[in-house]
Amino acid sequence: NAGVMQNPRHLVRRRGQEARLRCSPMKGHSHVYWYRQLPEEGLKFMVYLQKENIIDESGMPKERFSAEFPKEGPSILRIQQVVRGDSAAYFCASSVTVGGPVNTEAFFGQGTRLTVV
Amino acid sequence: GQQLNQSPQSMFIQEGEDVSMNCTSSSIFNTWLWYKQDPGEGPVLLIALYKAGELTSNGRLTAQFGITRKDSFLNISASIPSDVGIYFCAGQGNNQGGKLIFGQGTELSVKP
User: Fold this and answer.
1) pLDDT over threshold 60, residue A102
2) Are A4 and A91 in contact (CB under 8 A)?
3) Does the pLDDT at position A103 exceed 90?
4) Beta strands in chain A (DSSP E)
5) How far is B42 from chain A (nearest CA, A)?
6) In this predicted structure, what is the pLDDT of residue A36?
7) A111 contacts on B by Cβ (under 8 Å)
8) List of long-range contacts for A48-57, beta carbons under 8 Å, 24+ apart
9) Residues A29-39: what's their mean pLDDT?
10) What integer best gives the mean pLDDT of chain B?
11) Mean pLDDT in residue range A39-50
12) Between chains, do A91 and B42 touch, taking CB under 8 Å as contact?
């Protein structure tokens, strides 16, 4: 079984360009989460999506950032007009369901490392 | 908002020694998870805890869900060089969906 797949692994963008990060959840998982990790810090929650719905976007910056999880295809995290401060590792996680006690574990992808130059 | 304090921030130990790290929260969590992250990789789930007081082992790793539901610890026994990495605790609160709050991480170095 394939795990959570993220691509690209590394992405370099110039200031002002758009960055699109893709995440394919594990087979059978319908819940997707995006996290951001700055160097030498823990992961910070950004957004939680279920197929075609944004459930919780409390960690998303109000501007330039958006996320979607369409009925078909991967989840996309989109960052418009990138700035140097957007440079970070972006991780996607998926889970089968929520609310415990079983099958709520989130499994993470290998991340996309975004560098804005 | 909910915050997790993880300690220690880093540890330097000899191979064969036991290791202990812990996390405390300002509020109650329903689930505690422990992850390990290697450089350039995503976090890998080590242990999941779902009940206050629960003690769970995974090989040389043992973790406990504090009785107050505001803390958890992870022990690694007889450390080996491949234990090197960053260990994160993560908590899941009530009515938070699957959203996880992460600690700042404990960086473990093991000297052969």
Assistant:
1) no
2) no
3) no
4) 5-7, 10-13, 19-24, 31-37, 43-50, 53-56, 65-68, 75-79, 88-95, 107-108, 112-116
5) 4
6) 97
7) 41-42
8) A48/B97, A48/B98, A48/B99, A49/A75, A55/B97, A56/B96, A56/B97, A56/B99
9) 92
10) 92
11) 91
12) yes
Query: Order of strands across the sheet with A19-24?
Result: A5-7, A19-24, A75-79, A65-68
B34 falls in which pLDDT band (50, 70, 90)? Answer: very high
Residue A100: pLDDT band by 50, 70, 90 thresholds? low
List the structure tokens of B60: 């040389």
Total residue length of chain A:
117
Residue A4 touches chain B, beta carbons under 8 Å:
yes
Cα A96 from chain centroid (whole Å): 16
Length of chain B in residues, anyone? 112
Phi-psi region of A81 (alpha: psi -120 to 50; beta: other; left: phi over 0): left
Tell me the sheet residues that pair with B58: B61
Choice between A41 and B62, residue whose per-residue pLDDT is larger: B62
pLDDT at A99: 55
The whole-angstrom distance between A58's CA and the closest CA on chain B is 10
Distance CA B41, CA B2 (A): 26
- From chain A residues 43-102, the ones with a CB under 8 A of any chain B CB are 43-45, 48, 55-56, 91, 93, 95, 98, 100-102
d(CA B36, CA B86): 6
